[in-house]
Amino acid sequence: MSTVAAIGVVGGGVMGSGIAEVCARAGLPVELVEADRAAAARAGEAVERSLDRAVETQKLTAEEASAVRELIGVGHDLTALEGVSAVIEAVVEDLEVKASLFTELDALLPNAQFLASNTSSVPIMRLAAQTRAPERVLGLHFFNPAPVLPLVEIVTAMTTAPQVVAKARSFAEETLGKRCIDSPDRAGFVVNALLIPYILSALRMYESGFASREDIDLGMCLGAAHPMGPLALADLIGLDTLLAVCQSLYAESRDPAAVAPALLHRMVEAGLLGRKSGRGFYDYEREPAGTVASSHSSKLGPASVAFGPGRAAPPA
Question: Whole-model pTM?
Answer without folding.
Answer: 0.86
